[in-house]
Design a protein that fits this description.
Length: 235
């Protein structure tokens, strides 16, 4: 039984994101945590490199995982490639047809001693920028593990956020966040007045509106204000 939990891994990654700039080092720790928490044998990470217009191996926990990731790239098939095409997690075992699904990659995975493989997409603002491949040496149920996607999301944040920001850039982001807060507070007031709700209830109303319409909270707040100024209901 693992002594490290998903919460421990998330806390470590979060702390690293705000204190370190070593992307490779943080990713190595994230992948090691992925293997430990999911009780996997090996983990690999492929990402799309726009500057080279191709997929690249970014990190792995073992040499065998690295070889299997590169093998997928050579044959243009495999769990990671499928994830990038479908934008959905992939879970396949020997029983469910790993060899038949990705010949010859499925056979290579099996011959390396693995009986199951999970792959999870790295989603970034509507795009799939890579995939996290998790290799298992023990039999598992053919179902998606929510912790697997959590680790893929953590890896996405590490890849996309690890750059040094200047003081002006930090100030600009803070100012933008403050502007968003002001808009949200104004929208809560509009909703409270119009719907005869408390401020707390107005916030819940605004969040529900954002979810229902597929908007960010700031976008929903701005819509409330714009429609109030134009005399149109938001309900």
């Amino acid at each position: 039984m693992t002594t490290r939990t998903a919460g421990d891994a998330f806390a470590s990654a979060t702390a690293a994101l705000v204190t370190q700039t070593d992307t490779a080092g943080i990713l190595a720790n994230v992948l090691a945590d992925t293997a430990e928490v999911l009780q996997a044998h090996s983990v690999g990470l492929l990402v799309y490199a726009p500057s080279r217009s191709q997929l690249e191996l970014l990190s792995s926990t073992s040499h065998v995982a690295a070889e299997l990731e590169l093998y997928q790239l050579q044959h243009d098939t495999g769990p990671c490639l499928e994830v990038l095409q479908s934008n959905q997690p992939v879970v396949v075992s020997l029983q469910s047809g790993m060899r038949d699904r990705w010949p010859p990659v499925g056979s290579a995975i099996a011959e390396a001693g693995f009986v199951a493989v999970h792959a999870y997409p790295l989603h970034w603002r509507g795009r799939t920028i890579g995939a996290l491949n998790v290799f298992f040496a023990q039999d598992l149920a053919d179902e998606v593990d929510p912790h697997g996607q959590m680790f893929a999301d953590i890896a996405t944040l590490v890849v996309t956020q690890q750059r040094e920001l200047s003081e002006p850039a930090i100030s600009a982001r803070i100012d933008e966040a403050l502007r968003g807060r002001i808009v949200i507070e104004q929208a809560k007031g509009v909703i409270a007045y119009r719907e005869s709700l408390s401020i707390a209830e107005s916030y819940v109303w605004l969040r529900s509106m954002a979810v229902d319409r597929g908007l960010t909270l700031s976008e929903a707040a701005q819509l409330v204000i714009d429609q109030a100024q134009g005399g149109h209901p938001t309900g």
